[in-house]
Amino acid sequence: MKFTLLSSAMLALFSSQVMATACVISSNDDQLPIRMCQQNINIPPSLFTDSFCQPQIPDRSFDVAFTEECPEGAYGICHGAKTPGVAYEQAIHYYSDADDAPILKAYCENISEGRWDTP
Description:
Layout: H1 2-18, E1 22-27, E2 35-40, H2 45-52, E3 62-67, E4 76-81, E5 90-94, H3 101-110, E6 115-117
Antiparallel strand pairs: 1-2, 1-3, 2-5, 4-5, 4-6
């Protein structure tokens, strides 16, 4: 009985570590607002948190919050998005300005090799 409980606890712990994570990225400066969320699909966890979730846009600053999944309310989602030359995938949820959807959809499908979805 103790072995079964221990096995179940270990499996639950391991499953939670394998579960995809997400990061919500929000600009915190006085420029045009940016808000998006990146849902990890198959990126190694430390690479996702230390690299993929660290925006590098000159002269901009951001807050990054980690969560289990992206919040609802996105106007568009790029499923299976890849960085050119990298096989890792993520789903990128966009919240800022729905007028950007045509440009982001084209980028998603043509550059990121993803599939655009309008929830």
